[in-house]
Amino acid sequence: MKCCAWIVSVVAGVLVCGCADLQQQANSEQAQQRWGRVRARVKLQLAERAFEHAVLDEAFDHCREVVALDPDLPEAYLLMTRIQLERGELAGADSVLGYAETLAPASPDVAYLRGVISERRGQHTEAGDHFRRAYEAQPGDLDFLLAYAESLLAADQSQEALELLQARCLDFEQDAAIHTLIGQAFSFLGRHDEAAGSLLLATQLAPQDALLREQAGLALLTAGRTNEASLLLEPMLDDATASVSPGLIVAWAGALLDKDNAAEAIRVLRRGLDRHEADALLWTLYAKAHLITGELDTAGYAASKAVALAPDLAEAGLLLAYHALVTGRSDDAVLAIQSLLKKNPDDIEARLLYAHALEGQTGGQSQAVEQYRRVLALVPDHAFARARLDQLVPEPVLQSSPSPEAAPEPESPN
Question: Tell me, what CATH number does 285's domain have?
């Protein structure tokens, strides 16, 4: 009996020691896993920092280390997706996002990135659905709100986008992006004054954003608020480092010309040409402005410069022809206009100028009449062409036939 008791005691001791070893091993593995997750979080922070500083390769390498330490961390796959989107690697982004979607199928970040991938592929309806799900899951996220609103604007649902943004505007009233999108929605709806107001507010919230300032300036010009636009845009001309697009200068100078302020238009155009000397449209407007002010030499030089830069730009060719006409070179004007009409026979302005030039030539009246008739064939209600044609070919006055003498009243019988 003592022997059996000893054996039982030994076996029990071995079992106890074995269980202790197993427990110790399990505790060690759990501790290692916990340590691995801690290291993974630290590596993830390093990856996020590198991504914020646009060091994409380093960020991606850190993400790989994160996944090796903790393969069940969806944030790592989401960041890898963003990195690949920045690189333009859509297929890779789609594949990696699939792992995140498996781990966190209801994540609004997954829905948002799905929307970005669909948008990059031109699948705008699908993108809008993904952005809507992301926003509905987390309506307090401004990025999700803006992405959903942008998808509505892209789908020509400007009124829906405007209502969505206005409903949330007070929640993000100090953010320039939401006011910018509200301005775009107003603009798409043709409410230009309200668009200008929203974009102007956005520039006050983000005064260093040159692109936003340009957008607001264009909106003000479209709304006819030229003086306000000039005040907003003037600092950009004074800043040599600011990027000012030629399209903005053209719109600005054109609005000034519409306001009969050719001198100010010339000043703006001159500053624009300092930055964009090879832009034919700027030279064209520069020529037009100098024709208005009567500075014919500068106008002729500018028109010639525009034609040299863009031989097919019809407006530049017309200005050059008009310059030839007003400086007494009607033959040159006629040749220039004939060249334009060969390229575009339906150019109304060229035909009108051609008719005007022909009127001044000896024996050219009949040809001018033909040109005015051609204009009326293209635009039947063109008032100027009709008036000139009536002056050159007056309708014959119809002579009224003499009224027959009244027949004598028959004598009444007695």
Answer: 1.25.40.10
Residue 299: give the domain boundaries. Answer: 245-321
Q: Which of 361, 370, 362 is nearest to 392 (CA)?
A: 370
How much of the chain is in helix, strand and coil states, percent to nearest 5?
Answer: 75, 0, 25
Query: Residue 401 above 50 pLDDT?
Result: no
Number of domains present in the structure of the chain: 3
Q: Which amino acid, residue 94? A: D
Task: Answer for the pair 131, 147: CB distance below 8 angstroms, yes or no.
Answer: yes
- 409 in any annotated domain: no
**DSSP code of residue 223:** T
**C-alpha dihedral (200, 201, 206, 212), degrees to nearest 10:** -30
Q: List pLDDT tens digits, range 234-289.
A: 999 888 888 889 999 999 999 999 999 999 999 999 999 999 999 999 999 999 99
Q: Are residues 375 and 353 in the same domain?
A: yes
CA atoms within a 13 Å half-sphere pointing along the CA-CB vector of 296: 9
Looking from the CA of 94 toward its CB, the CA atoms found within 13 Å total 10
pLDDT of residue 395 exceeding 90, the answer is no
CB 374 within 8 A of CB 388: no
